[in-house]
Design brief:
Helices cover 32% and strands 26% of the residues. By secondary structure, it is an alpha+beta fold. The protein is elongated.
Length: 655
Amino acid sequence: MDTRRLLTSILFAGMIMLGIYLIMGGFGGGGGKTYSAHPLYTNLPAQPATQPNPVLNIQLGNPGRDSGDKLSLTVNTLTAGIEKIQLNIKDYAETAKREEPLTMLSAGNSPVKPFATLSVTVDYPNIKEPMVFDMLKAQQVWRVAKQDANSVTLALNLLRPGTTDPLVTVEKTYTIDPTSYDVIVAHNVINRSGESIKVRIDQAGPIDLPKDNPQWDNRYYHGAALNTVKKVVDPERVHIGHAELFKLDGATKPMGAFLGNDPLLWVGAGNRFFAVIVRPLPHTSTPNTFPLTDGRQLKLAEHIASADVDQAVHGADAVTSTNVIRLTGQRIEVAKDASVSLPLNVYMGPKKRDLLMGDYNLDAAKAGERPVIYNTYKYAHMIRYSQGGPCASCTFDWLAIIILKMLDFFVHYGAFGNYGIAIMILVLFVRLLLHPLTKASQVQMATMGQKMSKMQPEIEKVKKRYAKDTKTQQQEMMRLYKEHGVNPAGPLLGCLPMLLQMPIWLALFAGLQADIDLRHASFIPGWISDLSNPDTVIRWTPFNIPLLSGMMGPISGLNLLPLLLGVVFYVQMKVMSASQPKATDPQQAQMQKISQYMILIFPIFLYNSPSGLNVYIFASTLGGLIDTYFVRKTLKKKGILPANAQALPTHAENK
């Protein structure tokens, strides 16, 4: 075979892959255009101005081992935002060593803190322009009005311009429930103006959650809406991947409106395993309701007008940029000497299937029970199985959920609680179920190969005889196919059973990628101690490989599983190449060679993949070799292979 042509083809294939990656924005480049952060979050003062109240961090809940609290919330009095959210170390730790509780969300160096109050707008009688109190630009520090173990109320007096008289008092209360991941964030506006007024509050929602995948940035923003025509909750109304926010025109992307036709019901920010979901609650005791087709009644909240995702920090790339959900308020009337509460229900916790799916029984359900609420509002759609790309259309969430339920079964009934063993059992079980399809595909391909080998001398004669008459050559070729009982579309039909299996394998891959139960789950102690991360056995200072690190991430240690995958893939390549009919022309031989060696590139791309996924691929590849062993026994019985053929093919058979 022409080695030069082979190398040229491999180089060409590599350039195509690189081109696709660049088109998809893999390097986070700006394409020559200048992008910047949203002006709302720029040119903020480095330190708050001199104010009567000190900047304090107030902790609600305890994330320690001896605590019964599900989470801990640290509230900062500067703009009344959240400094950090930690989950109880007994449930979710920072690392597999379980030395520190998981910090699920942190303000870090963001110019805006999560859930900070951005501004308060007051419409006052006889004043043409509404008064806007910009809390963020002023870096306003709130005072602590009330505090106990599970709640804190911050307060701020907003004064009439040029006076010391309070126009309104704004209170902001954070309340945690020690038994759940739900937090109530409520503004309470007290009217001290002596007149009826209208008030609007703009506030931040969650900022980016930490990037918790060493290879991909699969953070995102998501929203659900009410479909007023079909009278159902539409949990897929808006989905925005983190990477696409890097190139925002105007540094903002609308998520949608909470008012009007088909209003948003909730918005959220998520990463691979955790989510923050914001759902406005009604601000009156008698809210408007909307009936769903299944008989449920949704209480509508009307104090939030819309949600947008802003870029608060435009970094060097998508990973180092910071985004934030901005909730724009609706003007709400506050009567003279009265007050109004504007509450949000915020879920801050794991994307655990059973928890977010909830449960609903129309006869027995009690209003306000969390399983009912989560089920009604379809919180489970914050769990993203498909990661997009060309395989998104054939990755089915319902199939991934079924497979994960099977995994749960094997964990508890067969794997002794070991998720690594359960993954291998699951893969082999799926292989067993799909064996008839695999067998049919391989038998058909082998039969086709045998017939084509016998036909090859006649095919060559036809090609030589009618080399200059393409039409006659095609007619003669069709006659040969018909005489030998060969369907020209046979190779495609032979691939059909394999194509039918693809959604199952994609669902298995997607499910393992998103399943929080694999986080810190150990397979082999001392080696694979966290199935959600690479199986790093030796760590060193991270470094990048030009071009490759854009797709596989930095190399920060020695990961053993991908190297073992390379060995197994090599064996599989040898088996596959020996199983294929011998190529009859240089072009076909070249394509066979390229396809054989391209498979060895996959361990490079999988180097930083979670070890649970690599265990799945390892088990699947071994299962494929076992499949081949049994299929070859069938081929020997059918006489397609000689009786003395080996259990697995060798190159000697194909000479």
